[in-house]
Amino acid sequence: MPKSDTECFQAFLNALSRKFSKQDILLVLDGAPNHRSRELNVPRNISLLFLPAYAPELNPKENLWDEIREKIFKNYALKSIDAVRAKLEQAILYIDRNPRIVKSITSFPYIRKSF
Q: Average pLDDT, stretch 20-35?
């Protein structure tokens, strides 16, 4: 999607509903404003379930972002979008080169048991 707004989320819900029209869908979401907009028309075959406001144990990517912020982005302001892109490329390489770290911070027991 080009943006993360209510209009794009509505388009996603509509496409998801059509693709799986004969199934009931439980969609687990974070609390992003576009996920909770009163303007949304949630299709009948989709139910929305929202994660608690702060629950990193339910959303392992939050721990991954913490690792990236600590190791790559640290605590400073970047001066351009090109600098942001360069840091994101560093982050991708860091994640790619450190699979053990990724596994250790994202492999919660409930995830390991599901395989």
A: 90
User: Kind and range of the H or E element at 49?
Assistant: strand 46-50
67: tokens are 């690792």
Exposed/middle/buried for residue 9 (C-beta within 10 Å: 0-12, 13-18, 19+): buried
Give the C-alpha separation, 63 to 46, whole Å. Answer: 28
pTM of the predicted protein model: 0.55
Q: Is a pLDDT exceeding 90 seen at residue 57?
A: no
Residue 56 pLDDT grade (very low, low, confident, very high; cuts 50, 70, 90): low
The ranges assigned to domains in the chain are 6-50, 61-112
Rounded CA gap, 101 and 114, in Å? 20
Amino acid at the residue 87: K
